[in-house]
Amino acid sequence: MKRLEVETRTILLALTGSRLYRVHNENSDYDYKGICIPTLPYFIGTQNFEQLDSFSEPNCLYSALTDTDSNIYNIKKFCHLATLNNPNILELLWIDRSDYLVLTSFGESLIEIRDAFLSQKVFYSYSGYAHAQIKKVQTHRKWLLRYKEDPDFFSLPPNPKDYGLEENPLRKEQLNAFLEFLYILIKDASQHSEVATELLTHVDYKGLLKQYPLAEELLPAVQYYTRSTNEFITLLHNTQTYRQALQEYEAFQSWRKNRNSKRAEIEEKVGYDSKHSGHCYRLLKSGIEILNGNGVIPNREITGDAQFIRQIRNGEVPYDTLIAEVAKLEMELESAMKNTKLPKYPDQKLIEEKQIEIIKEYLNF
């Protein structure tokens, strides 16, 4: 769908990002997210539309969106992500009315059932997103400290021979095919364990298998269950280790080249990525609030921690203090999960009924 058509069919559009959270500064971007209802062929035909990410077309209804990182989602895609309790999606239904650029009666209908989306999945999604942020902080800090000691580190890409690869490593498609096979074995085996089955609903094992090398101590078991040869398992281990080193090298080069100059200046001064740190803190606090039954509160002025998050983003909080705060919040999040009154899963039936009702009424179907 073209931008103008998407915007015309938008039922909800809101300011998001740091300005929504009230932790922005004068240089912060204006980011928006929204929900639209495509035409009938996108629901029952062969055409597909999930979201619009590009806002560079000149003809538009909302000039504020031009040249931003804003997104407008098909209502089906939005509801799917919301049932997963995706933090960046859930907040769209809980923001201040003043932050909506568009809010139609159809958008209001979705807001009316916003509590139906909340479930114990909040614990896994918010802690997962927060962990990803602090992982970046720790990685960047490691790079900063090492670069100060040795400016020539990562000056050259890793050599396959240093990882025991005299021949070519496994191609990406070969590696992914094997990991897909391994995931299927894990999934099949989990059917015999209630705990394992429950974990599969919350943990993205397929993603973990593809993101991290298999632990060396697990390789004998992997070899046994997949009936692989010694040679293949050795090649698999060496390939994964090499590819991880290559990914880190490429990530470092991209980080050095593309990071925002102001952000880099703060990072050099305080020794950590202040933006990722602020996101981590906010996500953990938000997860605790939701599990405690307070709903989603994007506006951090309301919760009283906006000033502290701004201090983190400005590099005014020492790294050790930040890490201590994160550890404390992680414990509070686990405690909130143990005592939460949220249901185990979203109210899928109500969400689907409301989604169908909105689409049918909008399309006069």
UniProtKB/TrEMBL annotation:
Gene Ontology molecular function, alphabetical: transferase activity
Keywords: Transferase
Pfam family, one: RlaP
Protein name, per record: Nucleotidyltransferase
